[in-house]
Amino acid sequence: MSLLNDVINAALREHNVPQVGSTGTTQIIDALRSLLAPTSTSTGKPPDATHVESDALQQLVARFEESGYANIVRSWIGAGANQPIEPHRFGDALGQSKVDELTRKTGVPRQTLLDELARLLPTVIDRLTPDGRLPQASASARA
What is the mean pLDDT of residues 93-108? Predict the structure, then answer.
């Protein structure tokens, strides 16, 4: 799996989002890393050495599926166009506590955070699953 940092930066370019250093961009990148590599993020691993954590990706996809957005999230994984998701639905899928946590960690206003994550995460997940399949979760996550 490619470095998460590379995938996030590619998604930023694809959506014409200013690179790191722009107001709010660094915090959105931090939020994406928190969702897709929570262990690495919490231990302070440098972004250049951060890989997606398959367990986190599996759990994130499961949240969307359980919230009724299976077709949308599966479009991000499969071939073809990524279906968009409305920011409020994105927030519903993540859950109130997770959105509150990301808002606290990043300092980004809730609506801005949801707007940007709803715009960028489909592209990030699409790039993390180029063969149209999720990576296998570790044995501890399946237990």
Answer: 96
> How would CATH label the architecture of 4-131?
Orthogonal Bundle (1.10)
Nearest partner of 132 among 69, 68, 61, judged by Cα: 61
- Residue 32's nearest CA partner among 123, 137, 140, 130 is 123
pLDDT grade for 143, boundaries at 50, 70 and 90: very low
d(C-alpha 128, C-alpha 80), whole Å:
14
- What is the band of 139 on the pLDDT scale with cuts at 50, 70, 90? low
Q: Which residues pair with 22 in a beta bridge?
A: 20
The 3-state DSSP class for residue 62 equals helix
What distances in angstroms separate CA 117 from CA 17, 43, 112, one per listed residue?
Answer: 12, 22, 8
Rg (CA), the chain: 14
Helix axes 4-14, 25-36, angle to 10 degrees: 130
Task: Parse the chain into domains and list their residue ranges.
Answer: 4-131
